[in-house]
Amino acid sequence: MIKVAILGPESTGKSSLAKSLAEHFNTDWIPEYAREYVENLSGTYTYNDVCAIAKKQIEQEKKYMTNSSEKNGYVFFDTELIITKVWFEYKFGRVPDFLNEQLAIGFFDYYLLCAPDLPWIPDPVREHGNDREFFLNWYKKEIEQLKKPYSIITGIGQQRIQNALKALCFIKS
After folding, report:
1. Is the dihedral of CA 21, 86, 68, 172 positive or negative?
2. How, if at all, do strands 2-7 and 28-30 pair?
3. CATH number of this structure's domain 2-172
4. For the chain, which ranges sit under pLDDT 70?
5. What whole-number distance in Å separates Cα of residue 173 and Cα of residue 61?
6. Read out DSSP for 121-143?
7. pTM of the model
8. Rounded Cα distance, 122 and 137, in Å
């Protein structure tokens, strides 16, 4: 099973892409947990909240570490620990050891990095509409430090999905 992480700045179509790819391949996708968690808070998120989000993401990854199912070859994760690591560094200036240890395991086989070429759509949990290029470059640097393969995905609508499918063709061959 090829484990694919879909990441990128806010409002770059990660959730839509993860869902579309899972439908295309008739396989699993793991929705973004951070959004669900933050939407249910009564106030601003804290360092401990981001720790809870990271632990849940690790739990989701571990489910697929032990699951040897070959359900059509892929599983797609809508966001992952690199984004959480960057938020820790950006917002709190520190990253918990357990998160760095999990990233060092190298769980994902491939990364689809969504470019900020889609229009910004504000919502209550999004924070940095003017900094999407900054975060794209930071996520790219983090993937490269892990020495993992990735593709930057551009395009609007079906073109974005087609570009992701083309990228995935190269990793299957």
Report:
1. positive
2. unpaired
3. 3.40.50.300
4. 66-71, 172-173
5. 24
6. ---TT---GGGHHHHHHHHHHHH
7. 0.92
8. 21
